[in-house]
Amino acid sequence: MNPTTGAVPQQPLSHRLNSLIASDQAVLHLRSYFGTGPLGQAAPFTGSRFEQLAGGGDRPAVANVMTADDLIAVQTLSVRVPARVALDVLEGDLGVRLSELLSGIPRGLDMVEAEVRDLADGSPAHEAWRLLRGQPGIGWVTAGKLLARKRPRLLPVYDQVVRCVLGGPESFWLGLRTALRADDRAVHRALVTLRQAADLSGSVSVLRVCDVVLWMLHRTDHQKRTCKRV
Questions:
Q1: Could you tell me the residue ranges of all domains in the chain?
Q2: What's the Cα-to-Cα distance from 148 to each of 64, 192, 226, rounded to whole Å?
Q3: pTM value > 0.85
């Protein structure tokens, strides 16, 4: 799986996203995931700490370096980086190559504001994804989550559940960018509204709000149906 490949969806991605994030359950799911609901509610999901753990993977001091904190952060999303790869990231040539690519990925840029060149094949972001995806034991999901940790406003978390509920859109990064910008940025504005309604900090990225809403809406059904889209 490449973040720029997949099956063509049945309808424009912006339409699909609009219908999903308009769910009556969206705010409740966000509150449950991030623990902003009523006192006494179950503990928040571990993934609620993904972006902000240890100050965030995109803070200036470490924005272009993959750190041990980043490797722990992706574990909150139920993936692990194999030990040999982790050591190479932290102490070896793989870490050097990743740093070079990360330095070419804009920091602090929201996907809705990004240019096509920031996300397309051959961009530093795509090349970093390919480099990670080529490591033993690193699948497309883990590669994407590592990059989402480093650039949470620009690059989305994307896994089998979200891919399934969206129908496997072609060119996901570029497709999502287009969807966020469509109709005077209607999807982007709706996600900002959801973030506010769920009492989430502005430090939670719009992309993370999107991912959590989609994942929470479909995760149970995905498991029951044993979806084959991987």
A1: 13-225
A2: 13, 18, 26
A3: yes
